[in-house]
Amino acid sequence: MLPPLLLSLKVLFFTVPLLILLGGGAGWILARRDFFGKEACSLLAQLPLILPPSVMGFYLLFFIGKTPLLREMGILFSFPALVLGAAVSAAPIMIQAARAAFSSVDPELEDAARTLGKKESTVFFTVTLPLARRTLLVGLALSAARALGDFGVSLMIAGNIPGRTQTLPLYIYNQVETLNFARAHGAALLLVGAGLASLYAVRMLEEGGKGHRASC
Which parts of the chain register pLDDT below 50? Predict the structure, then answer.
């Protein structure tokens, strides 16, 4: 069980920065910018939440396999495919949370900082980001838990290769197939514990936000 656990944590280590940068960035764009096709982009960003993971994985498999550059990079059935699968599965949660977080920031507070001669980057890091931080952290906690438990997309594009692409969810699947339910239970409890920890973190963040608003 240890190698799949370590591999899952390694995948999460590389996926979280992608969720922060790409998911957070996409959420900011959807919240703050108007452009042609914005609603279509928003719907596409949420599509992985609606489609069955196997369908999402199939289309990724087809796209990567039919794109010469991506095919030559050897992404399929490798560690990068695990990171891609986890990020695709979890990104909609982070994007939606980031969009809600940045939309909730009062523009007048940002304008007040601009009137003081602050640069846009300074306004973002000293005003926008601190005000949006709590909702962003909630989204990150939930999306990280989703990435850790990804199964369907990872199975389609990375396979279930022990010692190479077998993460903890895939390990559970393999143990159930071989009727080794004791090991499956042990691995499943680890994921349940991670999920409960994420939900607890979200609850603490939500209660902290309510306490802060009450004190104001």
Answer: none
